[in-house]
Give the backbone structure.
Amino acid sequence: MTTITKHNDDYVAFWNQVLVTKFERFRNILMGGMSYHSETPLRKLHLPEGANALDVGCGWGDTALALARKVGPSGSVTGLDCCETFLEKGRTDAASSAMDNLRFIAADVQNYPFEPEYDFCFSRFGMMFFSNPVAAMRNIHRALKPGGELLFITWRKLEENPWLSAGKETLLQYLPAPGDDAQVCGPGPFSMSNPEVVIRQLQASGFTDIKVEPIDGPVTAGDSIEQAIEFQLAIGPAGEIFREAGEIAERRRPIIENALRQKLSPYQDSNGKVVMDSASWAYSAKKPNK
Ligand SMILES: C[S@@+](CC[C@H](N)C(=O)[O-])C[C@H]1O[C@@H](n2cnc3c(N)ncnc32)[C@H](O)[C@@H]1O
């Protein structure tokens, strides 16, 4: 058996070269679905005015903007993401809201030379893609001041997220599973679905007061059945199967699209939107005071 070890740079390159375009194409689905899961944690979050916050894997930056509103003009927020393309949207939105208390930096969270200057670190679905999660968590720990807090959201198991598992099940009836050498975005969206593992990773990185809470909710997996099918073929586990299968996938596209249509149609609401269940964890932890 061949063991394939990937470096974080490979994942960062994959995000920039392959996923950015797909994410931009389905921004409405992704942004809407992911926002649902940050709504309650962000609403409950108390951040004092003047705090200095960090948002890692911030993507389009909507959560960085939400944090910037909380900390007010005397506070500051840094949104960090490895894809400059995503950050451009964050910068544009910040400028059009006349907010000058946030900045966006294109960098790899796992290797960025942080100073211990942040009171708080947040991440919505931006923590599951590091080649070495403990190294990345230690780096975030380094970025926090003593007593600083970390709050991040990750997906629960694939089986608890039918909006991504339904497509995978369907595609595997027509295409082979991706091989060990498949090009991927990192350990992947479900790599932090086991709280026992994540709690141990957080402890190994120096965090204490660790808590985890489930969040369940609906995701619009397509504004129409056609968009839902396109989304499945582009992103997530089904997208990976389709991409890796290459030419054979394109040849079987009509039959696969038909099978997806049958699978996803029962989830259409009265407006034709495809609405499915999704499930995440919200983890919180602290850097000890000394
Ligand atoms: C699923 S998206 C979530 C984006 C955003 N937080 C949201 O909820 O809309 C994951 C994000 O993590 C970023 N990312 C992945 N690996 C990263 C790394 N090593 N360093 C910085 N950002 C990374 C990706 O570019 C992407 O924007």
Q: What stands out?
A: The domain at 8-286 is CATH 3.40.50.150 (Rossmann fold).
